[in-house]
Each structure stands twice: as structure tokens, then as C-alpha cells.
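A.,

Following up on our hallway conversation. C-alpha cells first:
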């Protein structure tokens, strides 16, 4: 492991806006994010596969009256968003280092007000369907964690993953499709991200890839 990574991991251990194994809060946080992490009762917005946290931190800047949590397993990536928030004095942002498959171990029922799934691994092989973050298994988990009426956003550059996700959402009676587009920046939904672009989104866009976007909510 490189010295740079070791330094970043050490800073993650010390930074209070990173929730990860080895910290007491890691075992206590489920259902208690407002109380134990943010010390307020503001709505909680979660970004999955947050990477370097550009979007999580960007949203926290725009909405100081909401709490934002980026989830990723890569500590060196989370370090970037964590250190940016710390240096700018942004206190309504945190990062959870864990596998997304274990999300329900860290959030209580209805604890999430809004969910963003941004540019996840498409897992294109049929045998990997269960690993897609929009597969039935994950949708069922999100349904229990996102409060009634809470919106789920999904962005990807991958057409196959988008079409798969859109078809699945349309097929479920417990989901209301709010909107979808194969060209986000030419759609009525383009302001949904408030001009915030991640490093990967900019890279895809610069290559001419159209960004796909899906917006839905769970219903009874």
C-alpha cells in the first residue's frame, strides 16, 4: 500500500465526518444519524457509490438545511470528500465506508428522505444482475429505508444498465415513475443536479456519452 493511502486512511480514522469500522459510532449509528452524527433533525439525503464525494459535498453546499451522507467502500476516495468538507467547514455532510449491500445495517426504516444512485458499476453480465444497484434485491432494500414519498434518483452513462433499470421500475406496482431521459442535459430534469458534476460524469460527458437519468418513488 502506498504511503499516500496510509496517510489518507489515518486521517479518515481521525475525521469525525467519516463513519467506518473501528469507530464506536459505526456500531451505533443505525436509526440515529440525526442524533449521533449531525445533532439535528434535518432530512437525510444519501448518495450511493459516492466515489470522491463531489456530488455529496456539492449538495451539502446548496442545501445547508439538509444532511448528506456519501456511501462508498473505498477509503481513499471518501478521504477526498471528507477533507474537502472539513477544509470548507461544511458540517452537514458525512461519509459511510461500507459495502452498499450492507446499507440496511446502518439505516433504520424510513430514515432516508432522498436517495441518489450515481454512476454505479453496470455489471453487464447476466450472472451479475444481483450486483446491480437497481436490481430487485436492492430496490426492495431501498423501499424499506427511504421514507414514504421519498424520491430516488439514478444517473448513469451506461445505456444497458439504464434500460434494464427503467424496465424494472416500470414493471413494479409499488413504484411510481416520476421521469426518465436518455439525455439528461437536454431534458426538463437537467436542473435536478444543480450544476454539480462528478469527475466521472465530466469524463463521460467529454467523451460524448449521454447521461441517462431516472427519477421515481416507492408507493404502497
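Then the amino acids I'd put at each of the 220 positions:
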Amino acid at each position: 500500500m502506498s504511503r499516500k493511502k496510509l496517510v489518507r486512511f489515518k486521517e479518515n480514522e481521525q475525521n469525525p465526518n467519516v463513519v467506518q469500522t473501528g469507530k464506536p459510532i459505526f456500531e451505533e449509528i443505525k436509526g440515529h444519524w440525526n442524533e449521533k452524527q449531525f445533532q439535528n433533525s434535518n432530512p437525510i439525503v444519501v448518495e450511493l457509490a459516492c466515489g470522491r464525494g463531489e456530488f455529496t459535498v456539492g449538495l451539502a453546499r446548496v442545501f445547508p438545511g439538509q444532511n448528506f451522507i456519501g456511501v462508498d467502500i473505498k477509503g481513499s476516495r471518501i478521504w477526498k470528500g471528507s477533507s474537502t468538507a472539513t477544509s470548507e467547514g461544511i458540517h452537514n455532510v458525512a461519509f459511510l465506508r461500507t459495502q452498499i449491500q450492507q446499507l440496511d445495517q446502518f439505516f433504520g426504516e424510513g430514515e432516508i428522505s432522498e436517495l441518489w444512485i450515481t454512476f454505479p458499476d453496470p455489471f453487464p453480465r447476466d450472472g451479475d444482475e444481483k450486483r446491480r444497484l437497481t436490481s430487485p434485491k436492492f430496490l426492495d432494500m431501498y423501499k424499506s429505508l427511504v421514507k414514504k414519498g421519498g424520491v430516488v434518483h439514478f444517473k448513469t452513462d451506461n445505456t444497458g444498465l439504464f434500460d434494464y433499470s427503467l424496465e424494472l421500475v416500470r414493471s413494479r406496482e409499488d413504484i411510481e415513475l416520476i421521469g426518465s431521459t436518455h439525455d439528461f442535459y437536454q431534458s426538463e430534469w437537467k436542473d435536478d443536479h444543480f450544476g454539480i458534476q462528478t469527475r466521472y460524469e465530466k469524463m463521460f460527458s467529454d467523451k460524448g456519452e449521454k447521461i441517462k437519468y431516472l427519477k421515481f418513488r416507492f408507493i404502497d
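The chain has one domain: 3-218. Curious whether your intuition agrees with the design.

B.
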